[in-house]
Structures are given as C-alpha cells and as structure tokens.
Amino acid sequence: MKNHINIIGRYGLFLIGLFIASMGVAFSSKAGLGTSPVASVPYSVSLVSPLLSFGGWLNLFSVIQIIIQVVLLRKKCRPLEIVIQTILAFVYGYLTDFSCWLIRGITVNSYVEQFAYMLLSCVILAFGIWIQFKGGVAMLPGEAMNRAISIVTGKKYENIKIAFDVLYIVISAVICLVFLGKLEGVREGSILSAIAIGNIIKLYNYLFHKFRKRKTNIK
Fold it and tell me: Cα separation of 31 and 35, whole Å?
C-alpha cells in the first residue's frame, strides 16, 4: 500500500514538473526569441502551418520520437514505458497549449522585455525539468529517444543530447528561412536555452542539497 502511495506521489510530482516546464515553453514563445531546442521544431512548424496548434505539433513530434525508440530498441523496448511516455507526451502537449492560453494577455513591447521573458522561461523550464527528475518515474519522448540512441550506439547520452539539440536548431532555422523568410522559431533565445537550462538545473541541485544539509545540521 505504501509503495502504491509512493508511486502515485512521484507521478504527481512529475506532472507538476510537466506543467511548470510547459509554462517555461509558453514564456519562451511569448518572448519571440526562439524556444528551447527540443520544442523549436514543432514551434517553427506551428508558425508555418495552422493545421495544428503548438501543442498539437509537439504531440506529433513526440510520436515520431517514440516510433524511433521502438525501431531502435526492438525487443529491448518495454511496452509499458512506451504507453506511459505516450500518455505523458500528450499531456505535455495539451499543457503547453493551456500555458500559452494562460499568458495570452501578456504583451511584449521591446527587445529588453523579450530578453527578460526569455530568461524567465529558462528559469521556469529548468525548474520544471528538475522537478521531473525528482519525480523519477518517467522520461519524455525526446530524452528517452536520446537514451535509446545512446544504448544502441554506445555513445554517451550527454553527447547524443547535444548533437540532437544542435540538429533541432538547424532544422528549425531551415524551416523558418524557407517558409517565412526569416528566423522565428529559433533565434538567440534557443542558443541561450541550450546553454543556460542545464546550468540552472545544476544550480537547483546545489541549492537543494545545501538546504538539506543545513536542515540536517539543525536537527
């Protein structure tokens, strides 16, 4: 019984992290300086095609990442994990649309405001990802795909992630330049996100462990 309660609590924490991360993505789209690398492709496509919303294209992109995992892992693929990933991916997509709707009334009038919202999005997104890690129950398709490629190729996960982050930015840039004639989905904010988010997560970990250590010493 306690084990079931613990699992429910961890999934609850993970879902909270998903919502916070979706708010970070929403603020990055509001800033208009490019989103995080993993969201840059669906965001760029959403600017070109109104067929689906940002969250809808994010869902479709997640399905593609899940299919790649299944093809790569084959018999090593765990069906339950794929089902959970699929559910969480769609939840994340809808949460992203909801988060964009929540901040729809915010107006951005200058580059300084754009940059400020971009920084805020990095802080929020990093916090959401950090909470997801603390939940420790699942991975979103993008990260799980990187893990699958790492398993199959024997390359380090970190190197795979960096390579795909760069690839996403390049693809987004090409989409925007070809169809819009300018950079929209990927700009300086995308590069800032790629550099800053990992370091902000490290800061959260440092502060968390420092807080726990201080709390232990007080006791």
Answer: 9
CA distance readout (Å), 117 to 6, 27, 197: 36, 6, 14
At 160 the three-state DSSP class reads helix
Is 48 within 8 Å of 179 (Cβ atoms)? Answer: yes
Q: What angle do CA 61, 72, 128 make, to 5 degrees?
A: 45
Domain coverage including residue 15:
2-218
Residue found under tokens 């600017």: 47
Across the chain, what does the average pLDDT equal? Answer: 87
Residue 122: closest CA among 211, 26, 209:
26
How many distinct structural domains can be found in the chain? Answer: 1
Alpha helix positions (H), 32-156: 37-48, 54-73, 79-102, 111-135, 141-153
CA dihedral 165, 175, 59, 100 (to 10 degrees): 90
Q: In this predicted model, what pLDDT tens digit does every residue of 204-218 receive, in sequence order?
A: 988 988 888 877 776
Evaluated on CA atoms 43, 85, 208, 95, the torsion sign reads positive
Q: Judge whether 22 and 179 are in contact, CB under 8 Å.
A: no
pLDDT tens digits along 186-207: 788 888 887 888 788 889 988 9
**What is the model's pTM?**
0.82
Task: Please name which of 188, 23, 40 lies closest in space to residue 114, comparing C-alpha atoms.
Answer: 188
Phi, psi values for residue 177, rounded to 5°: -65, -40
